[in-house]
Amino acid sequence: MHLVSCGQTAATINGEMGKFFRNKQGLCQGDPSSPLIFNFVADALLAMLSKAKVAGHVKGLVPHLIPGGTHLQYADDTMMLFEPDNHSIASIKLLLLAFKILSGLKINFLKSEVITMGMVQQESMQIANLLNCKLGGFPIKYLGLPITHRKI
User: Fold this and answer.
1) pLDDT tens readout for residues 53-75
2) Torsion over CA of 16, 19, 20 and 23, rounded to 10 degrees?
3) What percentage of the chain carries pLDDT values higher than 90?
4) What angle do CA 118, 109, 60 make, to 5 degrees?
């Protein structure tokens, strides 16, 4: 933490350099160690999700196709895949709250969506409301590629 908190920063306002001040927390924008630290934190979230699955709190989606598959992650984008039973939903909500408290990161629920398959609209809306997310639907774009629930 010494490297993070011992730096100094100055802001340029109207073309003039202001006074330097000490960083109290966090990294400067563009800091080369930022992606590495993000990976440590993202790994912690995935470890929490994996432990919840092993403990039986979260049931992965289509376990016969993807053994143990509860999530997909690429860069800063995480997709959680789980059965929509009340216990799994409550566990995911608790896990995300614990992650927020432990990491200090805020989850942007305005950018988060619940996407369901084979459920009636009312049940889907209930799940989205429980997780404080908006309800999305197919087709979606993931990493720039269209994904649909039907064969192309």
Assistant:
1) 999 999 887 766 767 678 888 77
2) -100
3) 26
4) 40
Distances (CA, A) of 80 to 48, 59, 83, 95, 115: 12, 11, 10, 12, 10
Cα separations in angstroms, 116 against 9, 16, 96 = 46, 53, 19
Supply 99's token pair: 């992650």
Helices (H) and strands (E) in the chain, counts: 4, 10
Q: Name the region of 132 (left: φ>0; alpha: ψ -120 to 50; beta: rest).
A: left
Backbone φ/ψ region at 3: left (φ over 0), alpha (ψ -120 to 50), beta: alpha
How far apart CA 70 and CA 52 sit, in angstroms, is: 10
